[in-house]
Structure formats: structure tokens, C-alpha cells
Amino acid sequence: MHRYRFILTRPLQFLPVVLGVSLITFVLVRLIPGDPARVLLGARATPTAIANIRAQYGLDEPIWLQYLYFLRNLAHGEMGTSIVFRIDVLDLIVTRIEPTVALVLASVLLSVLIAVPLAALAARNRGRPVDHLVRIVSTFGIGFPPFWLGLMLILFLAVQVPLFPVSGYGTSVGEKLAHLVLPALTVALSLSTVLLRSLRAAMIEGLKSDVATAARARGMPEGVVFWRHVLPNAVAPTINLLAVNVGWLIGSTVVVESVFALPGMGQLLVRAIFSRDYMVVQAIAMVFACATVLVNLAADIATVAVDPRVKL
Amino acid sequence: MKRHLKKAGLAAFAALLSLSASHAAFAAGVLTIGRNEDSTTFDPIKSAQNVDNWVFSNVFDVLVRVDRSGSKLVPGLAESWTISEDGLTYTFKLRDATFSDGSPVTAEDAAFSLLRIRDDKGSLWSDSFKIVDTATAADPKTLVVKLKSKSVPFLAMMALPNVSVLPKKAVEADPDGFAQKPVGSGAFSVAEWRRGDRIILKKNPRYWDAGHVSLDGVEWIVIPDDNTRMLNVQTGQIDAAITVPFSRVSELKKDPNLVVEMDPSTREDHLLINHEHGALAKKEVREALDLAIDKKAIVDAATFGIGEVAYSYIPKGALYHYAQNLQRPYDPAKAREMLKAAGASDLTLKYIVNAGKETDEQIAVLIQQQLAQAGVKVDLQKVDPSQSWDMLVNGDYDISVMYWTNDILDPDQKTTFVLGHDTNLNYMTRYKNEEVKALVEAARLETDPAKREAMYVQLQKMAKGDVNWIDLYYSPYVNVTRKNIEGFYQNPLGRFFLEDTVKN
């Protein structure tokens, strides 16, 4: 059981990470030029009205004092009030979590569904035309910017062949799934190429391994060798690769949610940044940071669980 | 074999999903509108944004409304009103109306709403309503408002959606809850607000003019990306999309299933000039800049011919617009001469551009090229819109394109901001003319419409003469609907008359 002891010690590392992220986002968002009070009040803003708003949200205090207030609130589990939406930041964010989490999960699922069969195909036909083809096609996936890819998918799979809805999210599970296919595919087309490369390499190594050779020597058919001995050994590196890419994955939801009008945190973050809604930017950055840390922890647990050789 | 099964399974799954998507059809009579941003609040005193005003005017009602043409005030919740001889006392007679929760609309509610926008510390409109001295209910249907000093534009201010009549009881019981799920007396009431996704309104059967409302409901749907929003209406997944980019108009017009609506707005784009910077303080230099800018070319290139060349700060279609105002011709040669005569032949200007705004960036390049013809060098500096605002306020610029849209019918609001030497340095231009300042104040107090119009005509001439800024172009609201939608329009102040809209 001591193999899992890191689960207990790891949370101790959380605190400095979370504090560091909070300090960096707090300072960075205030360093961007622009004033939330002016954005809120618009062109008719008078200096007194601006001063009022700044005082209401404590923006007239020195920045270090603002940070201390922020930490004090955080200790009480509060994130402040949104300057633009005038409600508690946590209330604002809580409804936005589901679409983002659903998008990330669907993207990972689709990436795996795309990458595993293609990697297997390429690995088992190493050096043959089909291997080259897979590798060439996969480089395109990295090259296309997500917003463009998203629009193309809408054009082809929602407009010309109306298989999926153009944008939005829906309320029932069926509607939500239907709405998630194209945005998740947009992310997956990029993510799967990253997975594909390392999976292919891991599988080629597996095919050459002593275990595989021994299995073949026992007269095991090539297909069974692959399923039983090669594929399982490629799982651990895939999990780790996904964990490393979770930051990138969250970043890409920001763009993809806007293109597909998904009411998630990424879309809210964009608007919060443009309107300098400091409290919302801080809170979402914290949520994303914590999510990244947690996902990495989960990946470590999963790696230990699937591969008895790994010790952390 | 396993893999083939998986593929077949996926295909079946996709088919199932698309089926469930197409079955999520809209109820008949519910108008779905795509827009680029979600509302921020339903407490009208806590917003100064168009995205909120559009929905406020569907859900709440005001005492006095602006009509469809944007040129006159018509009864809203007030059936009639009188103004005392001295212009200080306004008496509003309320019609029999009911809030969506069944309680009657009373003069006490109206007084409460007016005093609240003035006094509440969360109000963004306190300054505009400081002029109100008292507001009292003489009887349940009579509101008496006393002003601290005379103000002719006050009645027009009462048409602002922000000063809508709210039910006192419901607001006082739970102001934060009200801001999320309000009670109003407008044509529609809020059924659900799915933040970030949509606001679902349903017809309010208690609305005083409910007999005229054809729609069963309205959904304001957030679709931030312009391309996605247009594709939604092109495929018929929504009925209407607002804020169509100019560049998409001609293509959408060709689609037989769509109607592109262009409603006159009060939007005017202009080139701000910092009068405190060196040679720009000289009127002749500013005149030369006006001569050196080819507005027609800007309209054609940046607005695809949809806009119209502007020549007065009071936009075309707005009250007291002066159609004969001076239009300086495009004459770069003369501009060059004038600059030379004024000792400014080697002028270099710092131009602040709002980054990310397609039209603004195009205009910047055009103006840079045009001014080069007159020997003026322009350094473009692209900055984020909320940063540019700071730079303009601080005077850290020479020229910059900005726009203004009126939110009240009366020209006083814009005039005060732009020429009144008020609190914001004449809209960041640092323009100074004592004669203009005095006339702005006098016009605010003039009750005779004919005399008042003459004063505003004079102001338009004087501003043009002094080149307070350079008027560039007027542009309409551009919206697109499916062909089966009728009566979907905005008045020049931006109000959507959804009570007139019909879905066939």
C-alpha cells in the first residue's frame, strides 16, 4: 500500500502552488492597462461615478492590501463579487463548470478513440505507406488553429450536412452530447496528433519487446500479441501525456467555447478579461490551476494503478 | 471485427445524437435571437450597457417611451403628463397596469424607482438624476416630481430603460434576487436565465397592451462569434441574429430565406483630436485635417457602403439634426497649403487604434494613407479598447476614432458631453470655446421647441467651424432575420419593439 503514500503527501504541495497562482494572476490582471470601473460605466462615465465604483470594490486601496483582502476572503471560501455581473463570483462560475468539464472529457475521449486505432495501424505497418500516411495526416492536425478548424467543422457537419447543431449547449443529456460532438472533435483533432506520435513509438517498442517475441515464439497470433502485450504497455505513457497536456487542453477550451457558444468557464474568462472583471479572472484562473494540479495527481494514481513497476 | 463493430456503433450514436438535436425544435411563436453577449443583471440601475437595455425594455416599462421613429416621446406607463409653468414640477398620470406578479403599478412604485436610481449606492446613474428634488405619490395613480432646477431634457431622461418602474415591494424584499429574476410590467416576463447561454422570456398576459403582443415568448441566445451567429440564422437554428458585420451584408442579402434589416441608429463615428497638443490647438490645422480626410472613401471601404458620410455631431435622424451643416470637401492639396501657412508642414500625429475592431483598424490605415497625401505623418499605436480609453482621458494621444450612440432622445446629453465643457474634457478632446459652453447651458433651459432647435443648429455650426472633432460616418443597426419573421426592428435609440414582432 506504501506505493500510494504520495496521495497523502501530495496535497501538502498544493498550498504553495495555489498561493503562487493566486499571487501571479492577482498581480498580472491588475498590470494590464484599463480600468474595470470605466468599462462598466461606458462612455458617459464621470470621474465621481468612477471613484464610487472603485471604492465599492476596494480598487482604490494599495495593491498589496487588496491582495491581503483577497487571501482573507479566500480563507473564508469567498472569491468576491463580479464587477460586471454584480453577483458572487462563485455563484457565477458554478453553472459554467459543467460545460467546460464535459468538453474536456469529451475531447479526451475522442482523442483516444482517434489516436489509439491510428497508432496501432501505423505501428503494425511500420515503414509502409499506411504508416507514412498516418504520420503526414497527423501533422496537419497540429497545424490548424482551433477557431478555424471549429468553423470548418460547423460548415461541413452542421451546415452542408446537418448532422450536428451549429452551436450552443442544450438542457437534456442527449442535447448536450449532440452539442459537444463538434467542439470536442475540434480539440481532439489537435490533441490526438500529440497522442498518436507517442503511442506509435510506445507500440513499436512494445512489438519489439522480449515479451512480444516470447509470445510469438509460443505461437500466439500477432493480433493477440498486440492486444495482450503491446497495447497495455502503451496506456501508462498515454495517461501521462494527457496529464501534461491538460493545461493546453483547458487553454483550448477558451477559444473553442467562444466559437461554439458553449456557456462554459472559458467563454466567461474571455469576457471577464475584456471587461477587466478582476474578481472573475482571478477565480477562474484559480479553478483552472487547481484542476491542473488535481488532474496530474489523478494521472499519477492511475499510472501507479496500471503499471505495478512504477513507484512515486 | 471488434473494430468494425465499434465504428458501426459510433455511426449509430452520431445518427441518434443528430436526431435528438433536430427534435429540439422551437415552440411555435417563440422568437429566438442570437447576440454576442449575455446580459449582466436585471437590476436596471446597475447597468449602462446596451446588452442589458435591449432586454430591460422587453421586461420592464417606463413612464414615457420613445416612439419607433426615435423623434418623439409617447405614453408608456404614464397616460399623460403636465409640466408646470416654471418647468420644475412634472405630474404624471399613470394608466391601469399590473406587474407580472399581479400587483398593480402605483405612483408609489414609480416614485420609489426614480428615487432609487438617484440614491442607491449601486446605481450607475446617480449623477444623471441628481436634478430630481422630490418624487411623491399624490394618489395611487398620480406621480409628482419636483426638480431642483429647470431641465428641458428631463422628460427624455424618463424614457431611459434604467429608470423603468419597478415593484417597490419585490425589490425591497430581495434586491439581489430581483436582479436575477425580476418582476416587471413589460410585454414579456423572465421565465429562466441560463447564464452564458440564454434568457428565456415568456409573454406576460398581464401586460397592459397584451392584446397586441403576438409572440408567445422570446429567447435571447448568446453566440459570441460573428461567423457562428450568422451560420445559426442561415441554417434556421435561430430566427434572428443581431450585430451583423458590415462585411457579411451583401452575402446574407443574397440568401432567399433571410431578410437583412437596416434600421437607422444614432451611431456616429468620429475622429477625436487632442486640442492641447502643439499645432492641433490651431483651428486652421484641424481644418486642414478635415480637408485631408476622404470620408466617402472610408464609408465605401470600411463600411462596405452601408454607412453614410457624417457632417454634424447630432446624427442624421436624431432630434434637431442640421442637414445643411458645412461639409468640407476632400482637398489634400489645399490641406497641405493650410498646414504650411500654419507652420505645421512637418506634422507627426500619434493615432490610438482600438485593436481587434476590424472596422477601426481599416479606418486607421485609410486615414494614415490619406493624411500622408497632405504631408502629415501618422504613427499608429494599436491598444486594447479599455486601455485606449485611459489614454484618451489622460490626453496621451493626438487623434483617435471613437463612436457615440444616444441613449436619450434629447440632444442635450451628447451636447453636454461633447461641447458642454463638463466633467470629461469635452469627450477627451480638450476643446474650449466659452461661447459654445454658454449656448449649451442656455439650450438646456429653453422650453420653446423652435427657439431650441435654432440654438442646436447654431451649436452644430459652431462645432463644425471650430473642428471640435472630425465627423466621419453614420451607420445603421444591421440585423438579419428569417423570412417568416415580421416587424423585427429597433428604433434609433436601440429599443427592440418585440411586442410588434410576428413569427409566421
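Chain A has 13 helices and no strands.
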